[in-house]
Specification:
By secondary structure, this protein is α/β, with parallel strands linked by helices. It contains seven helices and nine strands.
Length: 238
């Protein structure tokens, strides 16, 4: 399977998604939009993964390449590709599906629990997943659930933590792909946002906890169930 990701800043890369893809025998490639790179044509990929970043969906004047990125995401959606959006990526995908993206009532930063909705628990996508789990968060904006999508999850600080559209488009507000290294990177680059608030943890607490293994396990379960399904390797000949 050919997986391609769109990266918005140098310090938010695919992290565990790359680990999973390579271990599963998939080809994973990426476009660094912040560096002027151009993505491949839509027919050259099976999955599109849209990463996070500190910019916003509406920051087109400051980041003109957002205009072309949105068109590319829309083209992948129209072509029937499997699309995974994370944080900013989920907001971009939601917007392309006609949902609004706005400033959240409160920022949510740090390790906070996420709970599956009742609607999510009946889906094949979430079969076997814990009804509540720890995830990493770093966002000031939020999205509405697109029309026709299933609301997957919520947290105390954000009602819309995830959605599934058409069985193949997954949007996650939270970061399940993080590793200890990637958490350190975002704290180092965005630590000025860690001002006191109800759902904002200190750098010391964020770096002092590590729930990445749990988060990665949840993400792996989701990725394994998205189409096209992973084909198991053939059994060795006797």
């Amino acid at each position: 399977m050919r997986i391609h990701y769109l990266q918005h800043v140098a310090f938010e890369d695919p992290a565990f998604i790359r680990t999973w893809a390579e271990a599963s025998g998939h080809l994973i490639t990426g476009t660094h939009l912040y560096d002027g790179q151009q993505p491949p044509t839509v027919d050259q990929l099976d999955w599109l993964v849209v990463m996070g970043g500190p910019l916003g969906v509406h920051d087109e004047r400051q980041y003109p390449w957002l205009v072309e990125e949105k068109r590319y995401i829309e083209a992948c959606l129209e072509a029937g590709k499997t699309v995974v959006g994370i944080c900013l990526g989920a907001q971009l995908v939601a917007e392309r599906l006609g949902a609004s993206v706005r400033r959240a009532d409160q920022r949510e930063i740090g390790w906070w629990p996420v709970a599956l909705t009742d609607a999510a628990r009946g889906l094949p996508l979430t079969e076997g997943l814990d009804p509540e789990f720890m995830a990493f968060h770093w966002h000031s904006d939020t999205f509405e659930i697109p029309a026709g999508a299933v609301h997957l999850a919520r947290s105390a600080g954000c009602e819309t933590q995830g959605f599934l559209f058409d069985g193949r488009v997954l949007g996650l507000q939270c970061h399940l792909e993080v590793t200890p290294r990637s958490v350190q990177e975002v704290v180092a680059n965005c630590g000025d946002q860690l001002t006191a608030a109800e759902h904002v943890q200190t750098a010391e607490r964020i770096l002092g906890e590590d729930h990445s293994a749990e988060a990665n396990r949840i993400l792996e379960g989701l990725l394994e169930r998205l189409p096209p399904e992973r084909v198991p390797p053939p059994e060795p000949a006797p």
